[in-house]
What we know:
Number of helices: 20
Region (Disordered): 41-65
Structural class: mainly alpha
Amino acid sequence: MSFALLLSWQNHRISLISKTDQPKLAEPLLLTLPAALAQQSQESQQQSQEAKQQNQEAQQSKTNPQQNYYEIKLLQRAHQKKLEEENVARIKELLKLDSKSFLETWRRRNLDPATFTKEAANRGNLYLSCGDTYSAYGLYKEAVRSLKQFQSTDSAGRADSQNIEDPLWQLLLNYLKTTVSESAEREAIHRILKASDIPGAVPYVSGASNVAEYFIVSGRRQNGIDLLDCVLAMILKNKPADNENLCAASYEFERINSLNRMPAAAKRIKEVEQAWIKVLDAAKKHHAEDRAILIEPMAHLSGFYIRYDDRSKGDKLAEQALKLAAAEEGNCILDRLYLISEAYLERNEIEKADEFLRAIAKIKCNKFKRTEFCYLPNSYRQLKTKYEERGQWSKAEALLELFRQAQEPGTYAELCVLQDLMLGEMEEAASLHKQGKNEEADRLLNKSDQAYIKVRQCYLGNNDKSLLESVSQNRQERLRSLGLENNLEF
């Protein structure tokens, strides 16, 4: 009840009271007015306090999400730190438990340097995980000494170096990531290279490549280039007949130079060219009669010239490589020529790539029909795609058909080409239908169906029901997406 209403009601009541009762009744009624006023004031204050509290809560709700975010981040960081501390504790316990076994390996390091090299490197990596750089580098130095001993005793016929040297180069890489001193970096790298600088020995190319990649990522490309240049020079000096490692080192040297990713200075291009020339010369000197060895550096150098605009030299070497592969009798070495075909495709030399791949298919068809390629099929598919992009399906079809004829019937290689033909004919048929060339489109769709029938028969003959189902489903989905009808009942 409001104060004005209450007052009017009280006045009305007082006027109705008789004059004799007025002093008796008016007094208690008038006494209720201060109480009503007090209650009204209290209610007003309470409402004001509630509004103020609601406003404060609203303000807090706006800041709470941000506050909660920081609290969660702090909790996550604390949890991560706890996990790291627990992991370090476990590694230290592991090192402690393994100490007796490693001590025995240490005592036998002169008798079995290979095992010690591997075990010391693995243990050094564990020390680095605990943040103990000093102990890790101490083991690295001991492992490098044993590596040198191993290189000296096993230079005639190297055992599998990956199991022995991979942990050591990984230890070097992890150590480089923790040190800030360039002099310390140089010393560590010099140690491991010196251990392999022995006649008949070679540095571990894969490990050196990983270290070079680290230099690139950290913005020191020249350091990576210098490292691989040194590795290549050491192989040429100590084991020039090792064509496999020479090609691997030269390939990494070219890749690290980033000639394929950005415009390169003429000096860089010349350095890579000289590297491949040296590798090819070494192969000619030490493997003059071994075509399988000669063809790889020849193909690499040809591809290099094609990519960097010296087509005359590139084409000449490509022709020599083709003759070399055609002259081989018992061993098919054609697949290595993908290095040349990919270079032509990279430079978008469509006609030259077509000519080169057709020549390969003819040699394979005449002499190596049963051999299945590993790398070259990708070149045929790339060229097929380029022809399709140019609206020249007939050329793509002719190339694929020639490549199919070079495969042994019923083999996986032939099936792959047939599926390429099946899908390609389908795409072209859909395109012709849109142009209103229905008769020609139906002819191509029929050819696509015939290719699928051959694939189906082959899979049924081999009892490959799951593969057949996959191919069939893919075909039906493609027909549906292209708006074509399925003319086959099965």
